[in-house]
Amino acid sequence: MIDPALLVSRPSSVGGVILAGGEARRLGGGDKGRTEIAGRSILARQIEILTPQLAVLALNAKGAPERFADTGLPVLVDPPGAAGPLAGVLAALDWAEAMGFSRVLTVPCDVPFLPRDLVMRLGGSGPAIAASAGRTHPVIGLWPVELRAALRRFVIETGERRAQAWAKHCGAVTIEWPDDPFLNVNDPAGQAAAERQAEPAPRKPAALVLPSGGTAQDLVEDFAAELRKNGIHVGGLIQRGRKSEAVLVALDDGTQLPIMQKLGQGSSCAVDGGAVAEASAVVRRAIRRRDDLIVINKFGPLEADRSGLAAEMMEAMAEGLPLLTTVTLDRIESWLAFTGGWCELLPAEHEALWRWWAPPRTE
Questions:
Q1: What's the start-to-end Cα distance of the chain, in Å?
Q2: Residue 362 lies in a domain
Q3: Which of 173, 197, 221 is the last residue of a domain?
């Protein structure tokens, strides 16, 4: 079960540690995280991607910590009696406990394209690890700090070094990604594959995650307005007002479509089928124009049942057009099923929207 606290805001109780102890022997030596992909080190890429998702980020590394001074991150050493990847996980848990965090994320230093919603998707009450392309990635995990003593006993009593054994022992759940964002760079072939993957890829559809009953109308409208000021063509619909007063506004020409109809005096309201048809035409018009961004105000109960504007969402994604919507916590699982998991979950924050929209840095 995804933790709502991780979805609706930047988590203040989650720390993160990059396990940077790997030596790039098959890549010519040195710190593996310093390996460059398209002109940027893996470590720099990871710091950029992870920092917005966490309260604090640190490194775990052997040797002189001064060599990482340029990162500005604290450097953690392995605890006595531990070795291998689990030493780094244990160091992360010790540090997180001292910092007062309830959970800590660990990632290896050789994965340059970590998801921007990694913490969100791994979030839950228990331990969780990532998986993709038929493989598990047990070092990419979110660990409750309460497991600290249990991991120490596991390491000392068994002498185990493998993260996979620990994940199985502590009952970590596996969270599957439909694509494969966990390519690791261990050798020249992996580096070459990462260089190819560093080329700009289609932007995943994004959903701003809201508390049940929440809204992000002003945030989405302001974001669309800022994009238009910069010459970016934004089409689709935003919503103004709520419940019986809800109106969909076409972003291209300002047409207003009252979406709810009253069923009679003293009766409740229902979605106006005619307005939905008009809304569909607005979105399809934007898709035909191939606007730079398609906005559909929300993934609601109709879309979760594959009606409403669900077909238009699917068409925009099939055409490779960036899609932005909103989804409430009670429909997260439906949204993930609808997109096949190929999406980004964003907290309802201005900065999160711009991080999603910004093209990947290559310099």
A1: 38
A2: no
A3: 197
